[in-house]
Design brief:
mainly alpha, 17 helices, 2 strands, globular, heme binding, Secretory_peroxidase, lactoperoxidase activity, metal ion binding
């Protein structure tokens, strides 16, 4: 399977427009799944997300990231929300998650309201998927219809959380492989990293970039040099010093969902190595073209982002879909 993935990756990189989907990943969901059982669910989540994003615009990025990290491990089944217990090793302490994910209390808050209106009906996985859509809209991003009917898993996978999720320092070929393993194309990948136009990154995740090749990919001008200097003030060179200090991944419009992140990559000023690789990697023949397209055409970016979010949200764990449950508390399997 690994050799097959590499083969298809090479085809995609060198044959623009070529893509493939892994069969069996997407199982049927419907837009009206809760029409008779919990008709107010979309309104409840929207109302709460409006309050949550108003309290702190960064909460939009936090919920979108939670959804992404959920879907890349066992499919979109709410496994990322499970707390560790004596009988279950959760995903929260896996290396890509432990210093990256927040928002669990936000999910708890919304889930409690839904449970008071429609007990035992709406899954945590659906809550998170709908919440990610609403979060995007609330900071200026596009709308898309959210198919629902997901089940919550009774298991989590620390191992898959460690291996499946892209890391900030990863190279392009490896990132493509991880998206392909989820049935997501290069076009999906470049569109989905556009979510980095909102949110922040911790120093530990961009230190190697700003003390590495940042000055190589960016232009030697006063504006770029001032930006790099400001990043180094936030993030000292010594490992362990200021690791949790944060800064926006889009330093132009950090609280607005737009295509600004792609302009950042064109300037060679991407904060994360994994993002900048999309434009400057030697293997980025197709990704470079797509980055340029989205920088020039925000409508094309919004359209593809919507399609890719639906596609990612439809990645389901067949086991959870068949034998899963609707958790009463998103942190624990029902007893």
């Amino acid at each position: 399977m690994r050799l097959l993935l590499v083969f298809f990756m090479v085809l995609t990189i060198f044959i623009p427009g070529f893509s493939f989907d892994i069969p069996g990943k997407d199982l049927p969901l419907t837009l009206d799944y809760y029409k008779s059982t919990c008709p107010t669910v979309f309104d409840v989540i929207k109302k709460e997300m409006e309050c949550i994003v108003k309290e702190d615009p960064r909460n939009a990025a936090i919920i979108i990231r939670l959804h992404f990290h959920d879907c890349f491990v066992q499919g979109c089944d709410g496994s990322v929300l499970l707390d560790e217990t004596e009988s279950l090793q959760g995903e929260k302490k896996a290396s890509p998650n432990i210093n990256s994910l927040k928002g669990y209390k936000i999910v708890d808050r919304i889930k409690n309201i839904i449970e008071s209106e429609c007990p035992g009906v709406v899954s945590c996985a659906d809550l998170l998927t709908i919440g990610a859509r609403d979060a995007t809209i609330l900071v200026g991003g596009p709308y898309w219809d959210v198919p629902v009917g997901r089940k919550d898993s009774k298991t989590a996978s620390y191992e898959l959380a460690t291996t499946n999720l892209p890391t900030p320092e990863e190279g392009l070929i490896s990132i493509i492989a991880k998206f392909y393993s989820q049935g997501l194309s290069v076009e999906d990948m470049v569109a989905l990293i556009g979510a980095h136009t909102i949110g922040k990154a911790q120093c530990r995740n961009f230190r190697s970039r700003i003390y590495g090749d940042f000055h190589v990919t960016s232009a030697p001008n006063p504006v770029s040099e001032t930006y790099l200097a400001s990043l180094r003030e936030i993030c000292p060179a010594s490992s362990g010093e200021g690791d949790s200090n944060v800064t926006a991944m889009d330093n132009v419009t950090p609280n607005l969902f737009d295509n600004s992140i792609y302009h950042t990559l064109l300037r060679g000023e991407g904060l994360l190595n994994s993002d900048q690789e999309m434009y400057t990697s030697l293997f980025g023949i197709q990704t470079r073209r797509i980055v340029s397209k989205y920088a020039e055409d925000p409508v094309a970016f919004f359209e593809q982002f919507s399609k890719s979010m639906v596609k990612m949200g439809n990645i389901l764990n067949s086991e959870s879909f068949a034998d899963g449950e609707v958790r009463r508390n998103c942190r624990f399997v029902n007893t």
